Amino acid sequence: MIDIHCHIMPGVDDGSGNMSDSTEMAQLAYKSGTKKIIVTPHCNVDPHRRNFWDSEMENRFLSLQAQLRLKNIPVEIFRGQEIFLSGGFIDGLRQGRFITLNGSAYVLAELDFRESAPNAYSKLHRLASEGYVPVVAHPERYEFVQEQHDAIYKIKETGSLIQVNKGSLKGSFGFHAQKKSFEIIDTRQADFIAGDAHSQYSRTPVLADVHEFICERFSSEYADFLVKHNPQRVLDNERIYGY
Ligand SMILES: [Fe+2]
To answer: Contact 76/233 with Cβ under 8 angstroms?
Structure first.
């Protein structure tokens, strides 16, 4: 499996606190069948969690890669960010302070949980019109998506893809997020399921249970589509079609 959303970068956001946490998270991912992880620290134009991809961030990434080799944890890591769509995000991408997923056209995009629907569609449309493919992080957690039955359809109309959190399916983010996550999966509107892991203890990087659940409830083809094939297409910068 491949996880396209993981806060495993040590000491930069509310995810892994240090290198030891990061290697434990990678070990846990590996043991449960995840062999590739895109490292996606929170990133924001605003002063809170700027985390631009600068030389310090690059060095941190290289240190993590080196530690995984040193500890014989055969998880391959790739560069990425979870980009909060506040003003200036297009400039950030143009200037290289924000980066796409593994240098592809795919951008892991996060919205304010209370973002209005029109603002959300407009920001995603803007991103898509610049040639990027927005991958909307956990839309099932956003208020407007929970409240408006056609929100996922409208998000997809902007050219965006849908990344459901495994924790939402498990009920970790409450009833409304869980209900919406099931609806997205049931109606085949999901393009990815990702861990959005923040630690080795809770919100972990384990995807095996959710893969098994999708296999049982739907099919192994659909499970593989969500946590193997589409994530690999992101890494290869290949086009993604609906299921
Ligand atoms: Fe995240």
So the answer is: no
Parse the chain into domains and list their residue ranges: 2-235
CA of 162 to the centre of ligand 1 (A): 14
> Tokens for 69?
């080799």
Compute the distance from residue 49 Cα to the ligand 1 centre, in Å. Answer: 12
Q: Give the pLDDT confidence of 79-122 residue by residue, as tens digits.
A: 999 999 998 899 999 999 999 999 999 999 999 999 999 999 99
Superfamily holding 2-235: Metal-dependent hydrolases (3.20.20.140)
Total-model pTM = 0.97
The pair of three-digit structure tokens given for residue 70, joined into one six-digit string: 């040193």
Question: How many CA atoms does the CB half-sphere of 144 hold within 13 Å?
Answer: 17
Return the H-helix or E-strand segment holding 5: strand 2-6
| Cα of 196 from ligand 1 centre, angstroms | 5
Q: How far is the CA of 72 from the centre of ligand 1 (A)?
A: 26
